[in-house]
Amino acid sequence: xxxxxxxxxxxxxxxxxxxxxxxxxxxxxxxxxxxxxxxxxxxxxxxxxxxxxxxxxxxxxxxxxxxxxxxxxxxxxxxxxxxxxxxxxxxxxxxxxxxxxxxxxxxxxxxxxxxxxxxxxxxxxxxxxxxxxxxxxxxxxxxxxxxxxxxxxxxxxxxxxxxxxxxxxxxxxxxxxxxxxxxxxxxxxxxxxxxxxxxxxxxxxxxxxxxxxxxxxxxxxxxxxxxxxxxxxxxxxxxxxxxxxxxxxxxxxxxxxxxxxxxxxxxxxxxxxxxxxxxxxxxxxxxxxxxxxxxxxxxxxxxxxxxxxxxxxxxxxxxxxxxxxxxxxxxxxxxxxxxxxxxxxxxxxxxxxxxxxxxxxxxxxxxxxxxxxxxxxxxxxxxxxxxxxxxxxxxxxxxxxxxxxxxxxxxxxxxxxxxxxxxxxxxxxxxxxxxxxxxxxxxxxxxxxxxxxxxxxxxxxxxxxxxxxxxxx
Length: 473
Ligand SMILES: [Zn+2]
Description:
binds zinc ion; Rossmann fold; 21 strands; elongated; seven-stranded mixed beta sheet; alpha+beta; about 30% helix; 3 domains; Isoleucyl-tRNA Synthetase, domain 2
């Protein structure tokens, strides 16, 4: 009864602002990081501030970390509940464009209104240590990390294909391409976007792929998350094998050979055709005159699709290049196709297709009526596709061997002839850290006409504010 009475007389509109003002003034939630008490950091994700203010998701997130922070404080910990703004990035830039001001101006307006909202929620944040990622005093450290990585060869520049709008004269993120057109230029007479080679910066995370994989096994995480992580790293061991161009193709470009990565060199005798990614640089060189227009139409169409769409399980598409390669294990001449289910970014951008032992190659062979040759005998019926190990068949001198033994023997035999080498591949890619857009931490690199790429260690390198930010869209 007593409790009910207290609630009935709790005048929140009066009491809360009164005490919140006191908390603010006396900085009661300021954490002393040098204190002798045991420490606790109630770290939650930093907010991406937008013009809309906080929403119910923020109210939930930060209430959880606030409860933790307060609980630990009561237990005698020096409890630190940080607060900050993940202020750079596309959504903030888009909001500024809409509002007709620079992102600097829009942040200067938005962040104080977040202060009011956070404080009205009664969260126990330490405002004395507030950070915002768009301020030079913060991003000088982002730049410092970049500089250290650059000096160690772990940050590098490379060219990659990016969506490009000729009207904006800028690259577009995947989500800014809608039905093949730029989100800002999507009327009937606007052009379709295309892919353009753009220089970008990368962090060499692939150097750490093995370390990352090893560490994953010991993590105290759910199996589902661990499996997702392991698949994302995607380690596979196998070999890179060279296929020479067949005679008639050789005349078009005699220096070329096609290198493929395979985890199943034991199935080489079953490679009845090859498939290249549409972007493979060899495609235009080896394509025959009769096939050229069809190949060009196909590669143009493929360039409009993103990798996720290309990997989806759908009906296979592809075009014959008119070129042939020689299977190094038996000298057989096999046709070379182009198909978008093969990606340039994985392996070598070309595969040897073994339809009897690979599901996707099998679908492709069925659709285009290409030969299927079983080379590993096991419990699976001969007419079905099988990845399983077994006993070698249709494989010349390797017949009768266990497929796992044949795998090693074939690689070592081809390696002796300079036609293969054992190789480990990963699905993980280096991390692209470039922004082609304006609103982000500048990369501290000078492109000097005389000295080329020069690291600028005079940090911070400050992002200039543009006066006419929105005029040209
Ligand atoms: Zn555009």
